[in-house]
TrEMBL record:
The lineage of its organism: Bacteria, Bacillati, Actinomycetota, Actinomycetes, Micrococcales. InterPro entries: GntR_C (IPR011711), TF_FadR/GntR_C (IPR008920), Tscrpt_reg_HTH_GntR (IPR000524), WH-like_DNA-bd_sf (IPR036388), WH_DNA-bd_sf (IPR036390). It comes from Microbacterium radiodurans. Keywords: DNA-binding, Transcription, Transcription regulation. This is FadR family transcriptional regulator. CDD domains: WHTH_GntR. Residues 15-83 form the HTH gntR-type domain. GO terms for molecular function: DNA binding; DNA-binding transcription factor activity. It comes from the Bacteria.
Length: 230
């Protein structure tokens, strides 16, 4: 793995419970800190770096393996497996050209895919998934700069896509987000914008947490409609 991960910082974000550790490791995958094909340090070394017992670490890794985010093979170690990085997904998004004048078209695509995506997440999200969404939203509510707020905003939406458990949807959203990012960086993010975004995200999260697909779809649609009006 050709990168340096601050494993100690991962553990500082959460208590030593296996599910919280699993959430922290999953977030590294969602954020791109760990990518498909990366190899984790040996279990013994990683447990020491995280400051947790091997039993807790093993339980967290097993949970991520069951979610399809890790592959553990004797003799090869533990490999990150991001299901969104597949040949089928690449074919799906390869025709989406990246042009700055595609911003409104990209918003229209989001309006088409994100409401049903939120509905599917409401049907499929686990308690751990919902806890991860709450953690991201809590981070967004902190006193952070505009760049970090935008990064967490995108992370929240990617997590919703991830919790549909359909890797093609995640890749499609990733590609549309890349198009939006070209122009989004030029848009002002003031206090009113943040308050509206946080309120919208809370509505989506509440619906997903309640496993209410209709409410989740409506909340996502309202959020995208608000972006059209911005």
């Amino acid at each position: 793995m050709n990168k340096t991960i601050d494993w100690g910082a991962v553990h500082e974000q959460s208590p030593s419970l296996a599910d919280s550790l699993s959430m922290s490791l999953e977030r590294l995958v969602l954020e791109g800190g760990l990518r498909d094909g990366d190899r984790l340090p040996p279990e013994r070394d990683l447990a020491v770096q995280l400051g947790v017992s091997r039993g807790s670490l093993r339980e967290a890794l097993r949970a991520l393996e069951l979610r399809g985010l890790l592959e553990r093979t004797p003799g090869r170690g533990t490999i990150v497996r991001d299901a969104t990085r597949s040949a089928h997904a690449d074919v799906l998004v390869s025709g989406l050209a990246l042009h700055t004048d595609d911003f409104m078209q990209a918003l229209e695509v989001r309006a088409c895919i994100e409401p049903p995506m939120a509905a599917r997440a409401a049907q499929r999200a686990t308690d751990l998934d919902i806890a991860q969404l709450r953690r991201i939203l809590d981070d967004m509510a902190r006193d952070i700069d505009a760049a970090e707020f935008s990064r967490l905003d995108r992370l929240f939406h990617r997590a919703i896509a991830q919790y549909t458990y359909n890797p093609l949807l995640v890749r499609l959203l990733d590609r549309v987000s890349e198009i939006l990012d070209v122009t989004r960086s030029q848009l002002p993010i003031n206090r009113a914008t943040r308050r509206r975004a946080l309120a919208d995200h809370r509505a989506i999260l509440d619906a997903v947490a309640s496993h209410d697909p209709d409410a989740a779809s409506a909340a996502a649609a309202a959020h995208i409609a608000g972006m059209h009006e911005s």
